[in-house]
Amino acid sequence: MACYLRVYGDDLNVIELLEAHNIKPSKIWKKGLPRFKSAPSKLNSNSGFNVLISGAEWDEFEKQKLDALKYLEEHKSTLSSIAMYSGVDSGYLDFGIEWRDVTVQCDSFPPNLIKLVGQIGFGIELSQYTPDEEDD
C-alpha cells in the first residue's frame, strides 16, 4: 500500500473536476457503474478518484508522512479548490501501514501535517494491513 488522496461525492462529476484541476488520478470510479469486474452487480454508490501521494511501502510510514507533507504544500491551492468543488462530499489522505504484532500499536501524525490537511478541507485515515507471511 501507500498513501493516497481519495475524493468522492454522491453527485460528483468526477471527469469535469479532474479536467478543471489538471489532476492525474491513479483510479476513477463513477456512481452506478460496477465496482468490480468480477462482481458486476455490485455498483458504486458514489463517484470519485484516488491520487497516489506516496509510493512508500507499508513499513515506511515516516516516508509516507514526509511525502504527503511535501505534496500538500506544493498543491495546497489546487487541493483546497477540489475540497470546495461542487459535488465533493469528502476527501481524505489514506495512509496504508503495516500492522505490527504488538500489545498496543501507536502511530501518530505531526501537527504541521494535521493542520495542513485541515486547512485544505480533507481528513486523514490510517489503514492497517496484515504483513505478508513471506516477509517474516
Task: Describe, in plain words, how this protein is organized in 3D.
With 136 residues, the chain is α+β, with helices and mostly antiparallel strands. The chain has helices at residues 14-21, 61-74, 76-83, 111-120, and strands at 3-9, 27-29, 34-36, 39-43, 47-54, 90-98, 123-129. Strands 2-5-1-6-7 form a five-stranded mixed beta sheet. The radius of gyration is 16 Å and the shape is globular. The two termini are 17 Å apart. The model has no long low-confidence stretch (mean pLDDT 94).
Provide tags for this entry:
two-stranded antiparallel ribbon, DUF4279 domain-containing protein, globular, alpha+beta, 136 residues
Major β-sheet profile: 5 strands, mixed
Overall shape: globular
Strand order of the largest sheet: 2-5-1-6-7
Q: What value does the average pLDDT take?
A: 94
Number of strands: 7
Strand percentage: 25-35%
